[in-house]
Design goal:
Elements: E1 7-8, H1 21-34, E2 47-50, H2 55-66, E3 78-84, E4 93-95, E5 100-103, E6 106-109, H3 112-119, E7 124-126, H4 128-132, H5 135-138, H6 140-148, E8 152-158, H7 163-173, E9 179-184, E10 189-191, H8 193-208, H9 222-229, H10 232-235, E11 239-246, H11 247-251, E12 257-265
Parallel strand pairs: 1-5, 2-9, 3-8, 3-9, 4-7
Antiparallel strand pairs: 2-12, 4-8, 5-6, 10-12, 11-12
Helix pairs in contact: 1-2, 7-9
Length: 266
């Protein structure tokens, strides 16, 4: 993989989240402060499943997961981040060749060791184009910067790929206890409030049951989610549903909503 000094600039700052560093930090601080505090004695999360809509829609749900990391921030040095391809047709998975991802809060260095490990696996390609305008990964970075501070990142966009292929990549990267795995996904899209509530409730139960047969109608990040649920790493962990809601709860329009869920694996 190339090592030229290149930075992936933010594509959705000012749309999905604030593009001003001070306002973004204030918004993140407020979301994290309002999220329920972790219960004392809870084990450290090894993985999170979080939504990726604009912060006004799903920020509260995502914050419930990210707040769990605050007591453990010094023990997490690397993040393997998987999210669906929304903009570029993609078979398999894609890693970038750039050296860092930038947000208004600064640059996050990419973890060359993890990315090269991923790129050597079947079905994984190198594509900066797959990452250039993809929001499913980008919207997680300010949250990670706010709660972890310094860390390295291995971002992977997941396209058309069977669960076992994604699981093999996850298991290859998720070996070190200091590596956090994050899967970025929303739930159902553009159903009525009542339909979405029913479908998303079923989907969340299927996640808790480790059902790796989810479809894109259940979750837009189904391929990444199915890979996690069928991975060896997930088999040894408990899965907890932290929050489920939809855009009708956050902004009030209940005609055509998008569902959101947050989970922790410990």
């Amino acid at each position: 993989m190339g090592s030229s000094m290149k930075v992936r600039r933010p594509a959705v700052a000012g749309m999905f989240y604030e593009d001003d560093a001070a306002r973004l930090r204030a918004h993140l601080d407020a979301l994290l402060e309002d999220a329920p505090a972790p219960a004392g004695g809870d084990a450290r999360p090894r993985a999170l499943i979080v939504p990726h809509a604009g912060y006004i829609y799903s920020g509260e749900t995502a914050a419930r997961a990210y707040r769990l990391l605050l007591p453990w921030a010094r023990e997490i040095r690397r993040v393997a981040l998987f999210g669906p391809a929304h903009r570029v047709p993609l078979h398999g998975l894609a890693v970038p060749s750039v050296t860092s991802f930038a947000t208004p809060l600064g640059e996050v260095p990419l973890d060359r060791e993890l990315l090269e490990r991923a790129a050597a696996l079947p079905g994984v390609c190198v594509s900066d184009e797959a990452h250039r305008v993809e929001h499913s990964l980008e919207v997680q970075l300010p949250f990670l910067q706010a709660v972890l501070g310094d860390f390295t990142l291995a971002p992977l966009v997941v396209g058309e790929a069977p669960p076992e292929q994604v699981a093999a990549v996850i298991d290859a990267l998720w070996t070190d206890p200091q590596t956090l795995l994050v899967v970025s996904t929303d739930l159902s899209h553009f159903l009525s409030y009542e339909e979405a509530s029913r479908r998303d409730s079923r989907t969340c139960q299927r996640v808790l049951d480790r059902d790796s047969g989810l479809s894109g109608l259940d979750a837009c990040g189904a391929r990444a989610l199915n890979g996690l649920l069928s991975s060896r790493g997930a088999q040894a962990l408990d899965i907890e549903l932290l929050d489920r809601c939809n855009s009708g709860d956050s902004i009030g329009d209940k005609q055509r909503v998008v569902g959101y869920g947050a989970f922790a694996l410990r």
